[in-house]
Amino acid sequence: MSTEVRESYREVVARLGTAQKGAARGAPAYSRFINRRIGRYLAAAAYQAGLSPNAVTGVSALFTFSGIALLIALPPSWGQGIAVALLLVLGYAWDSADGQVARLTGLGSPAGEWLDHAVDALKVVTLPLALGVGFAVHDVVAPAWLLVFVVSAIISSVLFFAMILTEQLRRAHGVQSRAATEGRFPWLRSVLVLPTDYGVLCWTFVLLGSPTVFLWVYTAITACTLGFLALALVKWFREVRSL
Predict the structure, then answer these.
(1) Residue among 108, 119, 104, 124 nearest 46 (CA)
(2) pLDDT digits 0-9 by tens, 38-69
(3) pTM, entire model
(4) Is there a contact between 215 and 141 (Cβ–Cβ < 8 Å)?
(5) DSSP letter at 209?
(6) Can you tell me the distance from the alpha carbon of 194 to that of 197, in angstroms, rounded to the nearest whole number?
(7) Total domains in the fold of the chain
(8) 3 domain residue, yes or no
(9) Is residue 136 one of the residues assigned to a domain?
């Protein structure tokens, strides 16, 4: 007879609280303080259900790309916007959960990390492009406005690639990632970069019931992200040049 004692859900959540790695220095507030916590609860449930980290990545992709598909399949409306936002938010939370499950189970692997990044790379490009296609198919805005979604796709792709490559180069040269303990006010940077937060972007889709309002908000987020990218590229280039 097995004498193995199964951990309770609360015990798993508590263990995750101590096992979770430190947040990245530049992580925006929603991703850092809210999404990681939601991901912790989902990771505990996934762990108790026996899901592997790769399976959790698959769940994340299912939610995310279902939301992206709705952007093309349905014309903008309040109902569509709420559904898209919830699907993207859940997809993002599950995306945070896969790494936590990997740490709980000890099943983390280069293949799992590759899969996670590959899904993210596909997500950041298809989301703005699907949004643009949906707006074009349903004749929501003047064609010139569709350039915003093309620019957003380019910015998102370059930002994601540069961020991941910089992190990989740090690892290759034995440079530790920046922890979330910098300065006297470690939360201030997270608040200042909120406009670039993917979690914030997910919730803006609730505004699709008013396409004009949504488009102006989305354009503002794109502009802020472009500004952040310009500053980040200079900083990262200087950093990797000194490695």
Answers:
(1) 104
(2) 999 998 888 888 899 999 999 999 999 999 99
(3) 0.89
(4) yes
(5) G
(6) 5
(7) 1
(8) no
(9) yes
